[in-house]
User: Which sequence fits this backbone?
């Protein structure tokens, strides 16, 4: 089955063609046929699991594509050069970690999710999509490894999570926080004084959602 003709359950339009059309509209790189088809399978899995558990508050298939998928792909496109390891802190239904894994298979990705049902979904998604991605089914704060890049999106208690995430960034590594304009200053402050902040990246289909991108320029332990 070609990607251009692929449909997800309950969809009245081909997901792959719609996703690439949205990416093209936003000036983002489009996907090849194989990657498109894996996004179709990912959406199908989300819809099936959402029918019996609360993976994401957004349940409309088109909104999942336009909000979750396109935002996550935009995050993938905004990744700094040289990132080899990445942590999705509080991954939930896999955003943005799984789309990044689909778009950037050369990056070693860890999805941290402490809720058992969501962690089970992530393991099923990794298996179904044949991803070389690790699922950490516990609090991200309990990880001992550090990462070239740590990403947070739609996590509870964002300021506290950002503070915890900052200690999982490797020396000279990056933190990327997907948030709203009014929260930018507070989350940057929560990351601590060891980061220098680049230009914020505006996210598609939103007037105030953006990515704050910071680089660790000093040891947080030395600044403490």
Assistant:
């Amino acid at each position: 089955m070609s990607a251009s003709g692929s449909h997800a359950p309950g969809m009245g339009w081909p997901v792959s063609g719609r996703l690439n059309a949205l990416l093209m509209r936003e000036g983002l790189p489009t996907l090849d046929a194989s990657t498109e088809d894996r996004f179709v399978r990912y959406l199908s899995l989300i819809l099936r699991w959402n029918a019996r558990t609360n993976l994401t508050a957004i349940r409309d298939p088109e909104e999942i594509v336009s909000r979750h998928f396109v935002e996550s792909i935009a995050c993938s496109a905004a990744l700094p050069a040289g990132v080899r390891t990445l942590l999705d802190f509080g991954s939930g239904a896999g955003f943005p970690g799984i789309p990044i894994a689909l778009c950037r298979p050369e990056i070693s990705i860890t999805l941290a999710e402490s809720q058992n049902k969501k962690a089970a979904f992530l393991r099923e998604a990794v298996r179904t999509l044949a991803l070389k991605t690790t699922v950490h089914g516990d609090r991200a704060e309990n990880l001992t490894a550090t990462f070239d890049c740590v990403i947070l999106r739609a996590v509870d208690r964002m300021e506290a999570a950002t503070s915890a995430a900052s200690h999982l960034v490797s020396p000279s590594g990056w933190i990327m926080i997907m948030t709203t304009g009014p929260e930018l200053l507070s989350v940057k402050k929560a990351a601590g004084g060891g980061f220098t902040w680049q230009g914020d990246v505006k996210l598609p289909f939103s007037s105030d959602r953006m990515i704050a991108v910071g680089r660790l320029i000093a040891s947080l332990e030395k600044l403490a």
User: Anything to note?
Assistant: Residues 31 and 85 are 22 Å apart (CA to CA). The chain has one domain: 12-223.
